[in-house]
Amino acid sequence: MSPAERLRRRSRGLLRRFRSRPELLVVRLKGDLGADTARETGRALRAALREEPKILEVDVSRVTHLSTDGAMPLFLAARGAREQGTRFRVTRAPELVGMVMRRVGLERYLSGEGSAG
Q1: Which residues, 6+ apart, have CB-to-CB distance to 97 below 8 Å?
Q2: How far apart (Å, rounded) are the C-alpha atoms in residues 100 and 67?
Q3: Is the Cβ–Cβ distance between 17 and 27 less than 8 Å?
Q4: CA-CA distance, 54 to 19, in Å (whole number)?
Q5: Helix ranges (DSSP H) in the chain
Q6: What does the angle CA 36 – CA 40 – CA 110 come to, to the nearest 5 degrees?
């Protein structure tokens, strides 16, 4: 089994990935994003960036809790995306998750309540 397949199997509870258009890669995170899931979230986002999409969209509509530790992989993914020329956006944040993102300074990566399209 390849490393990518192992990552997908371990990450099934945390995320779903799909391409709605060739240039857009969407990662849908769900559940509790905290210190205990930060490493797994970071791995999944780095794997998505390795595909070098033009746009990486992180849908957080099913995230139930976000801590400051859980937000770190989003910061790092945004920085990595910028460095490789990929547009990065976080979409569909529930109200409480959005409040945490604004508090930790991630609001500039939010693109609104609706999904991009």
Answers
A1: 60, 63, 65, 66
A2: 7
A3: yes
A4: 11
A5: 3-11, 38-50, 68-84, 95-104
A6: 95
Written as tens digits, the pLDDT of the chain (117 aa) is 565 565 555 555 555 656 667 789 999 999 999 999 999 999 999 999 999 999 999 999 999 999 999 999 999 999 999 999 999 999 999 999 999 999 998 876 554 443 333
Residue 61 tokens, joined: 């509509």
Q: Give me 21's structure tokens.
A: 């258009």
State how far the Cα of 20 lies from the Cα of 65, in Å rounded to an integer. 26
E strand or H helix at 51: none
Q: Which two tokens stand for residue 117?
A: 């399209």
Per-residue burial over 59-97, b if 16 or more Cβ lie within 10 Å, else e, is: bbeebeebbeebbbbbebbbebbeeeebebbbbbbeeeb
